Amino acid sequence: MNTKKKNSFYKVTILLVIIAGFTAFSMNLITVTPAIQQKNLNNPESSQYIPSEIRVAIYNEPNVTRPSYTAIGILTNNYSLIELALNGAGYQVSTITTEQIYNHELLTSNYDVFIMADNLPKVNITNQVKEFWLGGGGLLTFDSVAAYLCWSGILFPESEGSDGFSVYWNNQAQTSANISLRHPVTRGYDIGDTFTFGSSYSWSTFDWTALMGSSIASDLYRLANQPGDLNDVTVLGYDPSDRGGKLVHILTTDELDADNLLINAVAWLCPQPKGKILFDLSHSSRLGVDSWDDLTAYPGYYKTWRNSLVSRGFLFDKLYPSSTENFSSSRLNPYDMLIIVSPDLNYSSNDRTALTNWINNGGSLVVLGDNPFLSDFAITNARINYLLDSFDIRLNTTVGISGTQDLSSEEHPTTEGCSIVTAYSAGTVNISGDAFEIWGYSTNVIIAGQELGSGRLMVIGDMNWCAEGNIGTNDNEQFAINLANWLISWNADILIYTDDPFSANFYKSPLCRALNSLKINFYLTFSSSYFNYSLTNGSWELLIINLVNYGFANSILDNIKNFVDTGGYLLMSSYVVSSNPTHELWATLGFAYASNMPDNEPFYIWDDTHTIFNKPFDYDATLFQPFIFYSDDGDLLTVYDNATALAGYTASEAEGNATIILRNDKHTLYNGYIIDELSGDNDFNGFEDRLELWTNEILFMLDQAGLLPDGQPAAGIPGYELITMLSVFGIVTCFLIITKRKKN
Questions:
Q1: Is the predicted pLDDT of residue 431 greater than 70, yes or no?
Q2: Within 10 Å of residue 160's Cβ, how many Cβ atoms?
Q3: Which range in 1-15, 75-89, 534-548 is most confidently predicted, on average pLDDT?
Q4: DSSP 498
Q5: Residue 203: which H helix or E strand, with range?
Q6: 8 A C-beta contact, residue 704 and residue 611
Q7: What does the CA dihedral 254, 256, 257, 260 come to, rounded to 10 degrees?
Q8: Which candidate among 60, 66, 237, 370 keeps its CA 20 to 30 Å from the CA of 624?
Q9: What average pLDDT does this structure show over 573-582?
Q10: Quick one: pLDDT at residue 413?
Q11: What residues form DSSP beta bridges with 721?
Q12: CA 696 → CA 51, 405, 612, distances in Å?
C-alpha cells in the first residue's frame, strides 16, 4: 500500500474541467457521418451566467480515520485556504459536518457544490453524499476521495462496492503535472504547460486505459496528466449524460496557488436548473426512489425517473420527516414541483394548509395514487383526497381497473411525443370544476390535471407506470419528462421550439442552456404540431424558435405571423426560408429570400455596436464561423425598409447577403443562419460563439418585451456576474458532415 505524508495545507490550484462533446445521433431527417467520431477537444462547452451567490459546502470532519470501505490513503481535514479563496470570490461558503449530512442538510436547495478536500465520507453518510450528486449537485474532490467515488459507483458503476484502487486509480509519487486539454478553468494554461506541487508524495492518479473501458468513458475528460505519461490522469472531469451532477477530481491539495482556477472550477460545477423538484418521503411513500430509502415500504423504484429528470436540467431532492411540520412554507418554497406517492402516514391539517398555500403561490404538485382494490390503497387514496380538499380532482376510493392498460390521451401539452402510456392495475380519478382528463382507459379517467392560476396539479391513479421496469414501456418516460416541463412552466411567458439533433436531449440544447443560465422560465416544445398547439392555445409574450432539423407547415407559419401581427415578440433561427420563399411571414419580419447560404461558410458582423454583439457578452471577433456542418446552413436575405441587417455573408454590408435581421420596431429578430452550428470560439474569450449569440439575443428580446426582472436593462441580470470560463481555443480539428436533409 502506498502512503502519503501530508503535514501542511496550502494554497489552491485547481485544474478542472469540462469539455463538451457532441453526442451525434440519427433522426428521421438527418444522418450523421462524422469525419472524426470523437469528442471535439478544442470546442468550449458552455457559456453561462453564474449567480454570484453560489452556495458551497465544504466537508468538515476532524476524525480522519479511514472508513471501512477502503484501506488506502492518509486523510486530512485542512480546507482553510479553499474556504478563504471562495469567500474572497463572493461565494457563500459553509462547512458541513458528518452529523449535518446525516440529518439531510446536504440538499441541492441548500448548496450548489460540495467539496471533499481529501477527507472521505463516513460510512453513515455515503448515501446522503451520493444522493446530493444524483440530485444534480456538483462535486469537487481531491486525492484519496477517489476511493469513495469508485466505491459509491459515482465515477464507475462497475466499481460500486470496491474502492477501485489498482483497477481505476493508483498512488503515484510526483511533483508536477501537465495540462492535457484546454478547459474553462485552465484559461491561464496551454496544453502541455506544467504546474508543480511542493513535495514528491504519492498522489491519486487515474488509469486512462482502464477509464476508457468503463461504461461512462464517453463522459470522462483527461484534463491533466503525469509528465511524460498520458495514461496517468492527474485531473479528471466528469459530465454525466444520463444521471447526476458534474464532478471534478484533482490529484492533490498540495501547493495549489492559483485561486482563480478554484473559483472558475466551482463556478462551472454550479448547476443551472430548469426547475427544482422535491420527492416526499416524510409521509412514508409506499415506493421510494433509491435502494436506501428505508422510510418507504418498497425502496428503489424511481431511480430512472429521477435520473431522467436530472439529466434534463432539473434538480431533485427528497423531503425527510421533520420534528415539527413535514410540510411548511420554509421546506416547500425552494421548490417548483412536489411529488407525492401513496402515503402510509396521515397528513396533518397544517400539512394541508401549507401545501394549499404553496400551490396557490405558484407551486405545482403531482400525486400518484393506486387501485383501491389492492392492498390498502383505498386508505392511502383517502389520505391524498384529504390533502387535495381545495381542488377539483379526487382519487377514487372504490373503483379500480385490473391488469395492464394502454391508456389513450386527450389533447394536452404533456402528451407531446406520446402515443401510448401504459398503466398497471390503475385506480381511477374523479374530476369536477376546472379539472380535465389527460389520459384514460375506456370511460375511466386515469390521469387528470388542473390549472390553478398560480400553480398546477396532476393526479395519477397508478404509482407503477413510472417505476423501475415500467418507465421504459411505450411512452411512459417521455410523459414523465413532459409532466415536469408542464408543471414547472405554469408562469412562463416564453414558448420555445427546438429540434437540435446533436445535444444529449432537447433540454441540453444550446438554446435551453442559455435560457437556464439567465434563470428564465420557459415552456419547451420539440414537435411542430405541439408547438402549434401551445402557440394557439396559450398566452405568450415571446416565441423563440430554433428550427434546425425539420420544417414548419404553412399553417404554422401563418400562426407565427398572426402572433407577430398582434403584438407578440419573436426570436428565430432557421434554414427554412428557401423552402417556402414567398410566405407572408418573411415580409412581416422585414425581408425577402435572396439565395441559399453557401455551405460551411462564415458570416460577418455588419454593426458591431449593436447590443446583440456586446451585451452581456462582448463578442470580440468580426465573424462567426461554423464548426458543425449541416447540409443547409441557412439563407441569404434582402432587407426591406422596415428592418435592419446586422450581419451577413459578405465582410461589409451588401444587398441580398443579410443573415441577421432586426425589425425596426424591435419586435422580431431573425437569424437566417443556424446558430447551433457556431460551436467554436472565434473571439477567443472562452465561450462557445453560439451560446454568446443566443444569450445576447435572448437578453435583448427580453428587454424589448419587458420581461426582464424589475425592468432591468439588457446589460445584465441583477445578482449575476459574467464569469469567463474557457481559455483561448485553437482551430477546431474535427467536424461533422451531415447528409442532405429533407425539408418540409
A1: yes
A2: 14
A3: 534-548
A4: E
A5: strand 202-207
A6: no
A7: -160
A8: 237
A9: 95
A10: 96
A11: 50
A12: 17, 48, 5
495 contact partners, CB below 8 Å, separation of at least 6 = 522, 523, 525, 531, 534, 535, 538, 540, 542, 543, 544
Which candidate, 508, 641, 501, places its Cα nearest to that of 575? Answer: 501
| Distant-in-sequence, close-in-space partners of 28: CB < 8 Å, separation ≥ 6 | none
* Cα→Cα distances 647→401, 592, 611, Å: 61, 15, 13
- φ, ψ dihedrals at 474, nearest 5°: 45, -125
pLDDT tens digits, one per residue of 618-643: 999 999 999 988 888 999 999 999 99
Q: Check residue 42 and give its pLDDT.
A: 32
DSSP of 60-91: --S--PPPTT----------HHHHHHHHHTT-
In 645-741, which ranges are continuous DSSP H helix? 689-705
CB–CB of 627/677 below 8 Å? Answer: yes
Output the DSSP codes for 464-475: STTSTTTTTSTT
Report the C-alpha dihedral over residues 541, 547, 552, 554, rounded to 10 degrees. 60
Q: Residue 371: is its pLDDT beyond 60?
A: yes
Q: 571 is written with which cell numbers?
A: 426570436
C-alpha cell at 315: 434538480
Amino acid 686: pLDDT: 64
Q: Specify the pairing of strand 427-431 against strand 275-280.
A: unpaired
Average pLDDT over residues 564-578: 97
Length of the chain: 744
Residue ranges of domains in the chain, CATH in brackets:
53-269 (3.40.50.880), 275-488 (3.40.50.880), 494-717 (3.40.50.880)
pLDDT at 742 over 60: no
The DSSP secondary-structure symbol of 740 reads P
**CB-count exposure of residue 1 (10 Å: 0-12, 13-18, 19+):** exposed
Cα separation of 724 and 656, whole Å? Answer: 36
Cell of 294: 428505508
Mean of the pLDDT values across residues 123-127?
A: 98
Average pLDDT value for residue range 476-499 = 97
What pLDDT sits at residue 259?
64
* Dist CA 659 CA 180 (whole Å): 37
CA dihedral sign, ordered 206, 209, 210, 212: positive
Q: What is the pLDDT of residue 170?
A: 93
